[in-house]
Amino acid sequence: MKKALLLIDIQKEYFENGALVLVNPIPASENAKKILEHFRKENDTIVHVQHISGEGIPFFVSGTQGVEIHENVKPLQGEKVITKQFPNSFRDTDLLEYLQSKEITHLVIAGMMTHMCIDAGTRAAVDFGFECTVIGDACATMDLQISGQKVKSVDVHNAFLAALEFFYAKIQTTDQYLLS
Predict the structure, then answer these.
(1) Which of 32, 37, 51, 55 could bridge 138 with an S-S bond, Cβ 3.0-4.6 Å?
(2) Residue 55 DSSP SS3
(3) How far is residue 43's CA from residue 10's CA, in Å, rounded to a whole number?
């Protein structure tokens, strides 16, 4: 099993003063940092995914602070950075080709938003034949609404992780992953 860390959209836009502030992004990013440090120590493959929106979209605007990767997980020179415009990290990017070139078979996934980009990226990865582990406490999301009802972020987060665990991924905490 050859593994890679996929850090999806841990960008300033999701933190205080960003356009799409999530619930508890700091603890999630701190856990992602622990996983990142582990992968760096093991000299394993690391991929940072950065969302940059297309023209006319009011968030992740190219050239703004919001698109910058958060300090807690800032890429080092030589670490792969993939830019994307869609929730699925594989869509219209070279992510699949890059992972295949490294003979990766297993992805460890962390990042922002559990209900959108983590979900879309994990499902696509499995469809491309990768095994996936999602580090649940290294992901964050937001409150949502449907039919006038508020769905709390913790419920959104847990529902999406439960759905992924049903077929698509092993779900672990940071400590579970680091101690395994």
Answers:
(1) 32
(2) coil
(3) 21
